[in-house]
């Protein structure tokens, strides 16, 4: 009689994915990086310094952020995002006025120096300026476009507005004064700027120009 050997089935070994990343660790790293940005600026910010302040290893940081630029932008935005959100006042002009006043308040604080430093360093650092465009500039421009669309839908603004040009007209003067410091950034300046730009975008002004 033939016999067959029964082999004990092997239990497959599941490969683990390692420990899940801790939100607390991420917060510690971002807080440390943000504090160092304020203290020393982007050029002197180092992964070693952030790791020491956050009490983590450098590999822990590099698992989350591939470059110093990516870490710096995430840290900066984590600190300032809640302060520069767009309101919904029911009027596009006032939405821009309130949000731009928030931006000017930020620019007049120590964070404004960090912002200017990031833009300046970004001229010779493609990773940094790309991170700035993708994480700061683009999301805010999309928010601004939504404000324009709401204004058109409510009949406050004329149709056919080139939102890209309008956004540049509103915000470029803020960055011009931030970087060149030839004139102060004041509430009065924002009010005059918003009134000037938005007056040319209203339905009433467009109808008058065609008469």
TrEMBL record:
<feature type="domain" description="HTH tetR-type">
    <location>
        <begin position="23"/>
        <end position="83"/>
    </location>
</feature>
<keyword id="KW-0804">Transcription</keyword>
<feature type="compositionally biased region" description="Basic residues">
    <location>
        <begin position="1"/>
        <end position="20"/>
    </location>
</feature>
<dbReference type="Pfam" id="PF00440">
    <property type="entry name" value="TetR_N"/>
</dbReference>
<feature type="region of interest" description="Disordered">
    <location>
        <begin position="1"/>
        <end position="24"/>
    </location>
</feature>
<dbReference type="GO" id="GO:0000976">
    <property type="term" value="F:transcription cis-regulatory region binding"/>
</dbReference>
<feature type="DNA-binding region" description="H-T-H motif">
    <location>
        <begin position="46"/>
        <end position="65"/>
    </location>
</feature>
<dbReference type="InterPro" id="IPR011075">
    <property type="entry name" value="TetR_C"/>
</dbReference>
<dbReference type="InterPro" id="IPR001647">
    <property type="entry name" value="HTH_TetR"/>
</dbReference>
<dbReference type="InterPro" id="IPR050109">
    <property type="entry name" value="HTH-type_TetR-like_transc_reg"/>
</dbReference>
<dbReference type="GO" id="GO:0003700">
    <property type="term" value="F:DNA-binding transcription factor activity"/>
</dbReference>
<dbReference type="InterPro" id="IPR023772">
    <property type="entry name" value="DNA-bd_HTH_TetR-type_CS"/>
</dbReference>
<protein>
    <submittedName>
        <fullName>Transcriptional regulator</fullName>
    </submittedName>
</protein>
<dbReference type="InterPro" id="IPR036271">
    <property type="entry name" value="Tet_transcr_reg_TetR-rel_C_sf"/>
</dbReference>
<dbReference type="InterPro" id="IPR009057">
    <property type="entry name" value="Homeodomain-like_sf"/>
</dbReference>
<dbReference type="Pfam" id="PF16859">
    <property type="entry name" value="TetR_C_11"/>
</dbReference>
<keyword id="KW-0805">Transcription regulation</keyword>
<keyword id="KW-0238">DNA-binding</keyword>
């Amino acid at each position: 009689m033939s016999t067959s050997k029964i082999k004990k089935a092997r239990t497959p070994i599941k490969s683990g994915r390692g420990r899940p990343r801790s939100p607390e660790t991420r917060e510690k790293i971002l807080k440390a990086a943000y504090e160092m940005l304020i203290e020393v600026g982007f050029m002197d910010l180092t992964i070693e310094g952030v790791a020491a302040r956050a009490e983590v290893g450098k590999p822990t940081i590099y698992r989350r952020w591939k470059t110093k630029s990516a870490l710096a932008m995430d840290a900066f935005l984590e600190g300032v995002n809640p302060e520069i959100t767009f309101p919904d006042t029911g009027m596009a002009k006032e939405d821009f006025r309130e949000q731009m006043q928030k931006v000017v308040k930020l620019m007049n604080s120590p964070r404004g120096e960090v912002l200017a430093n990031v833009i300046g360093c970004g001229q010779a650092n493609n990773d940094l300026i790309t991170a700035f465009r993708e994480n700061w500039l683009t999301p805010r421009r999309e928010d601004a476009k939504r404000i324009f669309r709401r204004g058109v839908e409510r009949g406050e603004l004329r149709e056919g507005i080139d939102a890209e040009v309008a956004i540049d007209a509103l915000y470029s003067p803020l960055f011009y004064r931030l970087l060149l410091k030839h004139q102060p950034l004041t509430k009065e300046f924002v009010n005059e700027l918003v009134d000037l730009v938005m007056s040319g975008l209203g339905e009433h002004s467009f109808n008058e120009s065609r008469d």
